[in-house]
Amino acid sequence: MTQPGDALNQVVPPLVRLADRPGGALLKVATFGIGTFAILGLAHALAFDGWRAWLPLVFAAFLAAPVVLLAQRRRRLRLQVDGLAVHRTVSANPREIVIVNGEPMSAPSEAAASFDAALAEGRIRTARVMPRVEAAQRAAVAAAGGHVHAPYLKDDLRVTIAALLGTLAAIPLAALGSIVTALVLLTG
User: Fold this and answer.
1) Within a domain: residue 92?
2) Which of 72, 118, 121, 157 could form a disulfide with 143 if both were Cys (CB 3.0 to 4.6 A apart)?
3) pTM: predicted TM-score of the whole model, two decimal places
4) Domain assignment of residue 56, yes or no
5) How many structural domains are present in the chain?
6) Is 90 exceeded by the pLDDT of residue 72?
7) Domain range spanning residue 144?
């Protein structure tokens, strides 16, 4: 394991545990809002005729997609971070010397090489959507020494960020949809 990889494995798990409760609260609020909207949408579909009567229920299902995806990613991230303590990688001899190109490579030069590789990965931006996030994730994987040492970086962070933004947008949209559907049910 590289020194930047050790640093990542010391910093990321506490951050994930710190963000666990607010993330759970966000998912509960979103689930409550979308659930209320779905129940009102179902009541609207049963009270009125035609295909337009089903639109509130379809919109509620559409809003539920990023919430379900974020809940799945959150659960998987927690499992991967909790598994770090169980599957800790320790080298047998911390004083072993690796020879690269005829020169011994010590721990500081190994850390510098790992950092340089991470910087090189961070400069490559090939993605069309959120290229900096993708480059930062690849750089972090390179710094950690691969997905074996940082399994929490295996999932694409761009999808997780999009699911988070979708969940944040779903809460006010579900509240607005619930209010409009309730008003239509009361006046119709």
Assistant:
1) no
2) 118
3) 0.75
4) yes
5) 1
6) yes
7) 3-87+97-187
pLDDT above 90: percentage of residues in the chain = 45
**31 belongs to a structural domain:** yes
Q: Is position 155 within any domain?
A: yes
22, 162 in Cβ contact below 8 A? no
How far, in Å, CA of 141 to CA of 122, rounded? 10
SS3 53: helix
Please, is 186 exposed, middle or buried when counting C-beta atoms within 10 Å of its C-beta (0-12, 13-18, 19+)? exposed
Q: Could you give the CA distance from residue 51 to residue 174 in angstroms, rounded to a whole number?
A: 20
Q: Kind of pairing, strands 98-100 and 103-105?
A: antiparallel
Give residues with Cβ within 8 angstroms of 184, minimum separation 6.
44
What digits encode the pLDDT tens for the residues 123-168?
666 767 888 888 888 888 887 777 777 788 888 889 999 999 999 9
